[in-house]
Design goal:
alpha+beta, two-stranded antiparallel ribbon, 3 helices
């Protein structure tokens, strides 16, 4: 079962309802689908990871949303009120909750019931992993710290070339030169 239940890529901030900051979406049924008259879902109460982006699709900031009442909608709204508000124009998001299970009311009406997924794995672990992965790969300019990998252990790539010293190369070169001279002598006779 996939941890990510839904996502949206490169959504425009200027299309968000600014009065109440509701973020609406719809899912096409086929390639020829046209946008419906009414939105299919709203993602304000979604738990997940979001990416703030500029017009050039550069990742500027990666954050997580989902602990308590701090879901994607309120987190994005907060980014319209901080020092970086003029630096991002688009956002992408990756949700951990099926949109059909999201509450329809206000933030105050939301319960803490969706703090764990069906597989009983705490959402906070998945959020930390997703955020850490995106920060590590994307290296966004506005993230001041790295991701929280929890108990995961980082491995570095090993190369046999790193253990070769110049002294060893010099010695091998000297041996090869001697062999070459012997071969040349044999061929010259």
């Amino acid at each position: 079962m996939s941890s990510i239940k839904c996502f949206g890529l490169f959504w425009r901030r200027d299309l968000v309802e600014l009065d109440d900051f509701w973020i609406y979406g719809w899912r096409p049924k086929s390639l020829s689908s046209t946008e419906p008259d009414e939105p299919e879902t709203q993602i304000n109460f979604q738990s997940g990871v979001y990416v703030l982006q500029n017009d050039q699709r550069e990742n500027l900031y990666i954050g997580q949303a989902g602990r308590g009442k701090s879901k994607i909608g309120p987190r994005l709204w907060a980014h319209t009120r901080n020092n970086n508000r003029d630096r991002w124009s688009h956002f992408s998001w990756f949700g951990l909750t099926d949109p059909k299970r999201l509450p329809k009311g206000s933030v105050d009406d939301q319960s803490e019931a969706d703090e764990t997924e069906d597989n009983a794995r705490p959402i906070s672990f998945a959020l930390n992993e997703l955020e850490a992965l995106l920060i590590s790969v994307g290296e966004p300019a506005l993230n001041k710290r790295g991701g929280d990998w929890g108990d995961a252990k980082e491995y570095l790539q090993w190369s046999h070339y790193e253990d070769v010293h110049l002294r060893e190369l010099y010695s091998q070169n000297k041996k090869l030169k001697k062999r070459l001279k012997r071969i040349e002598k044999r061929l010259g006779q």
